[in-house]
Design a protein that fits this description.
The chain has 395 residues and is α/β, with parallel strands linked by helices. Helices cover 42% and strands 18% of the residues. It has two domains: 204 residues, Rossmann fold (3-Layer(aba) Sandwich); 175 residues, Rossmann fold, CATH 3.40.50. The relative contact order is 0.11.
Length: 395
């Protein structure tokens, strides 16, 4: 029986297995996607190849086991020699069939589907074209080689360069199915006569995991983004110079109201932090600069994405700069205000009746800080009303 069951298991490509990523949003996307894929396939009997590549030094494949609906899913992070992958794709374009030369081509013939999530917001060159190319590389090869490719719920666009738009169009035009998590790009999809389905961000399907942690009653959770705090990341560099001052003034505002504030990282590595993006480093730096530290605490242990989702669920209100920190609040019915650096915030927040609960923080001037705080505090006062609207939208 076991042999037959293994033989009948489906095999898929999934391009975004990031279980060890310091970005807990990427972890949430991985775990949530597996539940979404299980529902799409209508079975828990599937195994996953997560394709990656090497150029010079061969890397060893890695295996993981993840429980989905109480069944073990085997995930293999498989490293392919990139020139061989490119050759497979070229040969397919020439002969319109997979030539069994490279391992990638052989594996692609074995899989039933390719699923792509691109980090939730990586199907865009908002960060850079090189980032867009990197996270969508194997999705592109899969559609070129006619694998049935499913674009999982994510934000599509915006595209600033012609080359990014060209690659995106190739992927979208050849995808078997397109899901979106917001309506930001749907007018463009309609212009191309592409059919899409609107669904929740897949992190919704990742369950919170209870941990023993003290979150004060009526606390406001604030997620601080290391990328925005350090203000030097690729296309976003130099555009969030007043972010630190904004966060300080938000904290001071809640201190004046005697409301506890909990500073919560969502992308961080306790052992080997990456200076320019680590939320916890940014939090500790900001905390050290606070003149008044009263009623302010820090979440500083190494929590997983499901554990952070639980911690965020214990807040009375949440203010987030990382999109998936905000999703953790939205999907646990915690009223939330988004400090936005992309149009993905507007699209996602509108989806959950929170169109007025976000503010763009890029390229702002000093006098904009007070306008943002006034808007935020107005939403905070209406948090019970917002909570009810969210509950109606997320069910």
């Amino acid at each position: 029986m076991k042999g037959n069951r293994d033989k009948n298991r489906q095999l898929i490509f999934f391009n975004s297995v990031m279980l060890e990523d310091p970005n807990r949003g990427c972890q949430a996307l991985t775990l949530g996607s597996l539940y979404f894929i299980s529902d799409y396939l209508k079975t828990d009997d599937f195994d996953v190849i997560s394709p990656s590549y090497y150029l010079r030094r061969k890397r060893e494949d890695k295996e993981y086991k993840v429980k989905v609906n109480n069944k073990n899913i085997k995930i293999t992070r498989k490293y392919y020699w990139l020139p061989s992958v490119v050759l497979d794709a070229l040969l397919f374009r020439l002969f319109r069939r997979t030539i069994k030369i490279g391992q990638f081509g052989k594996d692609l013939k074995r899989v039933q589907y390719t699923f792509s999530i691109a980090g939730g917001d990586g199907f865009s060159d908002i960060y850079s074209f090189s980032t867009f190319k990197e996270v969508n590389r194997f999705t592109f090869f899969s559609v070129v080689m006619k694998s049935k490719t499913i674009i999982l719920p994510q934000t599509i666009g915006p595209f600033y360069s012609k080359k990014a738009k060209k690659v995106a169009n190739i992927i979208l035009n050849n995808a078997e199915k397109i899901y979106v998590r917001d309506l930001s790009y749907v007018n463009e999809l309609k212009k191309k006569n592409l059919i899409y389905s609107l669904d929740h961000d897949v992190s919704k399907y990742m369950l919170p995991q209870k941990v023993v942690v003290e979150v004060p009653d009526n606390a406001v959770g604030i997620n601080i983004s290391g990328l925005l705090y350090n203000n030097n990341f690729r296309n976003l560099a130099g555009r969030s110079s007043l972010y630190k001052e904004l966060i300080k003034q938000i904290i001071e505002k809640f201190q004046q109201l005697n409301v506890p504030v909990v500073l919560i990282p969502h992308t961080y590595d306790c052992e080997n932090p990456i200076d320019f993006e680590d939320d916890l480093l940014a939090i500790k730096n900001l905390f050290s600069e606070l003149t008044n530290k009263n009623n302010v605490s820090i979440i500083d242990k190494d929590y997983s994405a499901p554990e952070l989702k639980y911690i965020i669920s214990k807040c009375d209100y949440f203010i987030g700069s990382r999109m998936h920190a905000n999703f953790a609040a939205i999907y646990t019915n915690v009223p939330v205000f988004g400090l936005a650096y992309s149009y993905k915030f507007s699209g996602a927040f509108s989806r959950y009746s929170l169109a007025d609960s976000t503010a763009m923080i890029l390229d702002i001037e000093k006098n904009d800080i007070q306008h943002i705080i006034i808007k935020l505090m107005d939403c905070y006062k209406k948090r019970d009303e917002k909570k009810q609207l969210m509950m109606n939208s997320t069910n």
